[in-house]
Amino acid sequence: MTRSMDEALAGAAVRALIAQAELTPKPGLADARDLQARATGADLLALRWSAKALAPGFAAMAAAARRPGEPTRALREELGAIGRCAEWTMARAGGDAATGPLHHGALWVMGLLVAAAALRPGAGPGELTATAKRIADHTDRGAPRRPSPGSHVSATYGAPGARGEARASFPHVRRALDALSRARAAGASETQARLDALLTVMSTLQDTGPLYRAGPPALRRVKEGAQAVLDAGGTATPEGAAALAALDAELRERGIAPRGSAALLAGALFLDGLPALAVTASSGTVAPSGR
Question: Could you tell me which residues belong to the region Disordered (predicted)?
Fold first, then answer.
């Protein structure tokens, strides 16, 4: 792998983050309807800037992974240092990293998957998520000692959080990929397939966002509402679309944003796009890092 491929992986990660941001209508989450930030406090333009600001960091993570060629503890610590710098840049570009336009969990998910893709070029999703797990299993001695909102929620409610997802080989990223394949095979549009993938994650994920906002009742409502859409046949059916609209209205009214689910969908979209990236690389061209 070369520097150009590091940049290509970074570009693929940025495009996946932007694709997740632009996906509409996402229940309770910022999307293309929120240009004035009236509902979510995070407008779409800020989301795009936040994602694009991460491109140098993702490229640096890919390069860092290439050097040892294995998921070592030293690599984990280097990725952590790069991630903290990228998070600061992201916050400067679009708002506070913890509560602003792009949840920091997305950086964690995408950084691990970018590094895994650099370590195992051409590997499939199963091997890449397993490699990401091997990186995440190492501790980062340079990580801040202060607890984050996500770690506080995890300790309070026993939710695995983003770190737990990584250490379990990203099961919800793989579930989202399966949902994408099923919806596409059933004739859904790409938007409908991605929404179904998001709802599949929401239906079972112990998302720390709703827990932080309003505790277990909020998370239970997110799960039940997402499952209701899927039980109605998904967003491609009139019944599913109606259930989605009702869930979206409720979550927005209550200020409940399942951001952890959105971050994992972005990871799935990144892995979903890697085969096309490999074809592009074999043709001798490299996709740009943003739109």
Answer: 138-168
Specify whether the backbone of 206 is left (phi greater than 0), alpha (psi in -120 to 50) or beta: beta
Contact 157, 228 (CB under 8 A): no
Domains and CATH numbers, the chain: 3-145+157-282 (1.10.4200)
At 266, is the secondary structure helix, strand, or coil?
helix
3-state helix, strand, coil in the chain (%, to 5): 70, 0, 30
Q: What is the pLDDT of residues 53-104, one digit of tens each?
A: 899 999 999 999 999 889 999 999 999 999 999 888 777 765 444 434 456 7
The answer to whether residues 194 and 262 touch, using CB atoms and an 8 Å cutoff, is no
How far apart (Å, rounded) are the C-alpha atoms in residues 225 and 243? 8
**CA distance linking residue 255 with residue 213, whole number of Å:** 8
Q: DSSP state, 145?
A: S
CA angle (259, 155, 139) in 5-degree steps: 85
Give the distance, in angstroms, between the CA of residue 159 and the centroid of all CA atoms in the same chain: 17
What does pTM read for this prediction? 0.90
